[in-house]
Amino acid sequence: MSPALRTAAERLGTALRTVVAVPVSLGRTVARLPEVVEAIAMLPTISAQLEQVTEHTRSLPEIHAEMATVASATLALEAAMPVLVELQQPLPELVPALTQTAERLDRLAALIGSMDETLHFLAAVAEPLQGTAARIGRLTGGRLARRGS
Questions:
Q1: Can you tell me the distance from the alpha carbon of 21 to that of 44, in angstroms, rounded to the nearest whole number?
Q2: What is the pLDDT of residues 68-83, one digit of tens each?
Q3: Are 144 and 137 in contact (CB under 8 A)?
Q4: N- or C-end of the chain: fewer Cβ atoms within 10 A?
Q5: d(Cα 149, Cα 146) in Å, to the nearest integer?
Q6: pLDDT at residue 129 above 90?
Q7: Three-point CA angle 95, 96, 102, nearest 5°
Q8: What stretch of H or E contains 1?
Q9: How far apart are CA 101 and CA 57, in angstroms?
Q10: What is the Cα–Cα distance from 111 to 119, expressed in whole angstroms?
Q11: pTM of the model
């Protein structure tokens, strides 16, 4: 075969393959049209979901700032931990002293209550005597009061 004929045959083969490939390719495209339509129908839903994602991600900077604050506080707590552990160690030794102090305060409260009752009783007794003592003082001209001094 001559080179010119060979070149012409190759060109014709290429052209025929292109012509034959178009219907095959077009057939596959037409067969996939329902999938394309379904995908297009999903676009509004996807758009709404993307809007929700956008709305939710707007709060991320605020959340990030709060997390930074928590991290900072955690670091401060971590730094204070040895001091807190040291302060905690003598606490069990304080329990008996605190219990004893509470018992003493209870007794003191009872004594103060008893003293209050006694003072009310003395006031009730002394009040009527006050007028009597004043009258005796006027009768004696205050001589009894001076004698005791």
A1: 35
A2: 999 988 888 888 888 8
A3: yes
A4: C
A5: 5
A6: no
A7: 90
A8: none
A9: 58
A10: 12
A11: 0.34
